[in-house]
Amino acid sequence: MTKSEETGTGNDPFEIWRQMYDANERAWTAALEQAMGSREFGESSGKLLETLLAAQKSVRDNMRTYLETMNVPTREDIARLGELVVGLEEKVDQVIDRLDAIETAGRTKSPKRGQ
Amino acid sequence: MTSPMSPAWTDAAAGVWSSNDRALEMARAILGSVDAPVGMTPKDLVWRKNKARLYRYRRTAPAVHRTPVFLVLPLINRAYILDLRPGASFVEFLLGEGFDVFLIDWGTPGDEDRALDVTTLVTRYLPRAARAVQQASGEDRMTVLGYCIGGVLATCFTALHPELARNLVLLTAPLDFAEAGQFGQMTARDTFPVERLTDTFPIVPGQVPDIGSKLLNPIANYVGTYTRLWERLGDPTFDVGAWQAMYRWVNDSVPFAGAAFRQWIVEFYQENRLARDMLEMDGRPVRMSAIHCPVLNIAASRDQIAPRATTSVVTKRVASSDASEIVIEGGHVGIVVGRSASQNLWPRVGAWLADHD
């Protein structure tokens, strides 16, 4: 009696799958690598992506038009507000940078004054 | 016909029930991974800008080494990869070796960050974060350590601010895209619609780079992961928690700010500007030859995301006379986490950092 017969794994569908996977994984990987490494695959997947993006853009544009008609702020409107806040934070950072630079320059000059 | 009471029938039924139990265990492992505890090393927030956060990891004893380590993480993955879980944490290892550790987490960009590009991150974020490292540690210079895209950011930053870096350490950082492997083919100028993608999605969904990475080895990623899990669930020594933490990270993708994604694909992958000495940021040339500090470049032997051909350029280009490369057996992620990382990578990096303190 084999081990699988003893434990009943011979009838286990996952075990059957695992054995099939172990036996074929390398061959499947090599075949896919070859197919996906081809220029044709690149062109085809590029076209597929373009089509999906065109559909997605159309949905987004329609939604924006609908929300604008309903006088409801769109996602872009809210993002623009967020951009203003991010821009303001950058300006505050620039002011802090300048203050730091002035402070550093003051620190390097002060010993000379004392001499 | 076999009788339902026959031994063959009973055997078959036992096999099916055993599979059923294992399948439920597998479902529990996968579904539970969403809440797997990760990034547990205690840390303090020392600086923030927009979504970016700079953390300093807490030490129980004063640092033995004076040079702080500033970890720069990739844009497309969660930062907890370097602090996955206790015992599988590079951060925890560095703290144990006596280093003062800082980490920049880029956070999750929102629609308001659509104009955030790689240049802004390198010229506006990293210098300010580095200043926060200086102020918190009291040291003028630091070890800049970048992982994957974080390594590219770290290289650009060090080239623009050589005065801030005592050392540069790169973990699987793709810098030369002349032979970028399958990713290079996927993102080729004449087939990859990057403009349309970023026009449609101001913030590129995390699934885009995630699917791209998984397609590098689709059988192993989409089938092998689950086949191996099923197999290992039968092993009483299998640590489900460790598997869940890793599975959580692999599937916890981060959206990419549209402008950063476009710049990454066009200027780095398609035009290879950094390796061709054509990259400019804020009007300043970014040249690897401007890097004078010691450099340690680490590559993975079976890396499909950052193949050897993309990583090895740095040691040849930098002006430093102390530039070395280590090739670790493993893949892009495997070399930084897990048992082999704690045996191979971490001790070697720790020893190199101690020598270059």
Describe this structure in words.
The complex is a heterodimer of chains A (115) and B (357). By secondary structure, chain A is mainly α. Chain A has a domain at 73-115. Chain A has helices spanning 3-7, 13-36, 39-69, 75-114. The longest helix of chain A has 40 residues, at 75-114. Chain A is extended and about 85 Å long. Mean pLDDT of chain A is 84; it is low at 1-8. By secondary structure, chain B is of the alpha/beta class. Chain B has one domain (32-355): Alpha/Beta hydrolase fold, catalytic domain (Rossmann fold), CATH 3.40.50. Chain B has an eight-stranded mixed sheet with strand order 1-2-6-3-7-8-13-14, with helices on both faces. In chain B, strands 4-5 form a two-stranded antiparallel ribbon. Chain B has a two-stranded antiparallel sheet with strand order 9-10. In chain B, strand 1 and strand 2 form a beta hairpin. The radius of gyration of chain B is 22 Å and the shape is globular. Classes of the chains: A mainly alpha (115), B alpha/beta (357). Chains A and B meet through helix 2, helix 3 and helix 4 of A and helix 1, helix 3, helix 5, helix 6 and helix 8 of B.
How do you describe this structure in short?
The complex is a heterodimer of chains A (115) and B (357). Chain A has 115 residues and is mostly helical.
Using only C-alpha atoms, the radius of gyration of chain B works out to: 22 Å
Poorly predicted regions of chain B:
none
Helix proportion of chain B: 40-55%
Helical stretch count of chain B?
Answer: 13
Could you give the order of the helices and strands of chain B?
Answer: HEEEEEHEHEHEHHEHHHEHEEEHHEH
Number of helices of chain A: 4
On the 0 to 100 scale, the average pLDDT of chain A is 84
Low-confidence stretches of chain A: 1-8
| Main interface: chain pair and counts | A-B, 46 and 43 residues
